[in-house]
Amino acid sequence: MAEKRILTVDDSVSVRSLVSSALRQAGFDVVEAVDGADALDKVNSGFDMVITDINMPNIGGIELLGLLRERPDTRFTPVLVLTTESQKNLRDKALAAGASGWVVKPFEPASLVAVVRRFIGRT
Amino acid sequence: MTNPSPPETEPNRAADAAMADASALLFHDVPAAVYLRALDGAFLEVNNATAALFGYVDPAAFLAAMADCPEQFYLDPNARKSVLDELAAGGVVAGRRYQAMCGDGFVIWIEESAKRTVSPAGDVFYVGFLRDVTEEKSTSWALAEAEEKYRTIFENAVEGLFQMTPAGRFVTVNGALSRMLRFASPEALTALGDAAANLFTHPEDRQFLHAALSETGVVRAMETELRRGDGTRIWVSVQARAVRGGDGAVVLYEGSMEDVTERRRSQEALRHNLKRTKALFHQTVKSLSTTVRFRDPYTAGHQDSVARLATAMAKRLGLDRDAVDCIQVAGQLHDIGKISVPVRYLCKPGRLIGLEWEFMKQHAATGYEILKDIDFPWPVAEIVLCHHERLDGSGYPRGLGGEELCQPARILAVADVLDAMASNRPYRPALGVSVALEELARHRGTAFDADAVDAAREAVSAGDVTY
C-alpha cells in the first residue's frame, strides 16, 4: 500500500519542520505549504489529509477550510487545525467551516501521529 | 451542677454520615476535575468537572465512552502507561502533562496528579486530579512563534539593525549590519567589546549621538562616517532611540543604519559639477564683457565698475542672493552693445551731435539683440535694454517710465550714471564722485529711483566702492 500523503500548512518554518519530521518518522509522505494560497496550489496533486494553522498571510486557515470544502476533490479530505488559538468561538467557526479536529500547539509528536491515525489510519 | 457527658457513639455516626454526604457533594461539584480509578487504570467514578473537561454532558456519558474505548482521551498510549507505572511503583504521580483528545475532536493539554488511596473497607484505588493547561502551554508557544517571526524580520532586514550600550558595545546586531561593517558574522561584531571608540571616524559625531539620545531620546537620519572591520570607510545614515531603565537612565541605544556612501558620492559629484557650471557661467559672462575691451578699453573697465557698484547697491537694498547675481551679470554686460558703435564716436572728445548721438543711443537695443537668445535665469537682455530709461520717461530707447521699469533696471541706471560721471572718460576728465552724487540727488525720485540713489550714496560713503 502506498504511503498516505499529508499536506502541512504553516507560515512558521520551525512548526512545519516539526510536523513534517514527526509524520515522516511515522511513515507518512509529507508536503509543506507556507500559507493557504500555497496550499491551494499544491493540494491538486491529491492528499489524504491536510493539517493547517489558522493565522497565516494571504489565505488563513478558516478561509482555506472553506475553499477546500467547495472543491469536489477535497470536499471529504480530513482537515486538522493546528494552532495556538484555543478560543471556543474560533473553534466553532472552524468546525462550521468543516474542520475534522483541532490541536492546540505545542504538540507532542507521538500525540500528533495518534490524532492523524485516528482520522486516516495506518500507512 | 454538671452536665452529663454526651453519649459517644451516636453523634460520631451522624458526623460520619454528614461527612460522607459532604465528600460526595464535594467530589461531584468541586470545580476541579477529580476521578477515582482502579489499579488497572479503569475509571470507577469521575465528577462533573471531569466530564465537562472532555466535552461530555455528565459523568455517566464520560464513563460509557471510556468503557467503549478504554482511556481514549490519552492520545499517546505511552502517556497512560507511564502514569499507571509510576502510581504502581511509588503510589503517586505529580504534574504529568500530556495531550488528550476530547469527545469533539479537540486536542487539549492535560496536567494529571494522582495518588494511591486505601478505603476504610481496605480497597486500594487511585484518586486523581486533572487540569486543563492548554492556554498556559499555547501562550508560551505562541510567544515562541511570534519571536521566530520577529527574528526572521530582524535577520533578513536590508538595513543594519543594532542594539548598543551607551559605552559603545554592540549587544545585538543583524546580518545586514555585520556585512555592512565588514565583519564575518553578527557574533564577530558583538564580541568586539566597546566598539564605538574605534567605529566613528569623527569622535564629535559620537558625542553628538550620545547627547541627542540622552536629551531627546531619538536621532533621525544622522549621517556619519564609520571605520569598518577591514579599515575601509563608509558613510551611514543612523536612526536610533534611547531605551531607558527603571531609574530613567539610558541603558541601551537601538536603531538602524543604512549605507549612504554611494548617495553621498553622487551628491559630492553633483555639488562639484554645479560649482564648475557656475564658474563656467561667470567666466563666460566675463569673457563676453571683455570682448569690448579690444575696441574700447574704457567701456570694459566701466562695465566692471558698474557691476561692482550695482552689486553693492543691491546688497544694501536687502535683495536676495539671486537678485544680486542678476544685477551683477546685467551690470557686467550692460554696454556690450557698444561694439556696434564706431570707435570714432566712442573716443570723440566733446559732445556727440545729431546722427552720432542717434548711433550711440542704439547700443542699448544692440545689447538686447546680442543677449536676448541666451537662456539666462534672469531677464538680463531686458534690463540691459532699459539701463538708459528714466523714471520720468525722459530716457531711451523706448521712453518707458514709472512702474514699467523693474528694480534691477532702476539700480543699474543709477550705478551707470554715477560711474560715468565719477570716472575719467575718453572725451573728458572725471567730474568727481561728489558732483555725481549731487546730480543724482537733484533727480532723486524724478528721473532716478529714490532708494537706488540712497543705496549708491551709502555704498560710496561706506567704501563699498572707491573713486
UniProtKB/TrEMBL annotation, chain A:
InterPro entries per UniProt: Bact_response_regulator, CheY-like_superfamily, Sig_transdc_resp-reg_receiver
Gene name as annotated: cheY
Protein name as catalogued: Chemotaxis protein CheY
Keyword Lipoprotein part of the UniProt annotation: no
Record has Phosphoprotein as a keyword: yes
Residues annotated as domain Response regulatory: 5-120
Lineage: Bacteria, Pseudomonadati, Thermodesulfobacteriota, Desulfovibrionia, Desulfovibrionales
Example GO BP: phosphorelay signal transduction system
UniProtKB keywords: Phosphoprotein
Organism of provenance: Solidesulfovibrio magneticus (strain ATCC 700980 / DSM 13731 / RS-1)
Domain of life of the organism encoding this protein: Bacteria
4-aspartylphosphate sites (modified residues): 53
From TrEMBL, chain B:
Residue span, HD-GYP domain: 277-467
Gene3D superfamilies linked to this entry: Hypothetical protein af1432, PAS domain
Domain PAS, chain residue ranges per copy: 146-225
Signal peptide, first to last residue: none
Domain PAC, residue spans: 220-272
InterPro entries named in the record: HD/PDEase_dom, HD_GYP_dom, HDIG_dom, PAC, PAS, PAS-assoc_C, PAS-like_dom_sf
Superkingdom of this protein's organism: Bacteria
Any Pfam family the entry gives: PAS_9
Identification of the protein by name: Signaling protein
Native organism: Solidesulfovibrio magneticus (strain ATCC 700980 / DSM 13731 / RS-1) (Desulfovibrio magneticus)
